[in-house]
Specification:
- The protein is of the alpha+beta class and about 80 residues long.
- The protein has one domain (about 1-85).
- The chain is built from 4 helices and 2 strands; from the N terminus they run ααβααβ.
- It has helices at about 1-15, 20-30, 45-55, 55-70; strands at about 40-45, 80-85.
- The protein has a two-stranded parallel sheet with strand order 1-2.
- Helix 3 packs across helix 4 (about 55-70).
């Protein structure tokens, strides 16, 4: 998770650093921590490799959190679209 958090911070957040806490990840997806307030598309490249490195359980938790912030999710008003590539 540490490596994923570092990669996510470098690629998505720019000015902030996420340290792997899942509650903080949930907050980040709401916007305002380097992510747009009006929603965004999150393209997860090589997601199968990530799943392998993170472990299926951790990967699935991250996916669930992201999808909760997209269309049909509990926090869908955040407008986060996940694309697994």
């Amino acid at each position: 998770m540490d490596e994923f958090a570092k990669h996510f911070s470098q690629r998505v957040l720019r000015e902030h650093r996420w340290r792997g806490n899942l509650d903080a990840f949930n907050d980040i997806l709401r916007g305002g921590f380097g992510t747009p307030d009006e929603g965004f598309v999150l393209v997860w490249r090589d997601h199968l490799t990530s799943r392998e490195h993170l472990g299926a359980a951790s990967f699935d938790v991250l996916i669930k959190i992201i999808r909760d912030h997209g269309a049909g999710g509990h926090e869908g008003e955040d407008g986060v679209e996940l694309v697994l590539a």
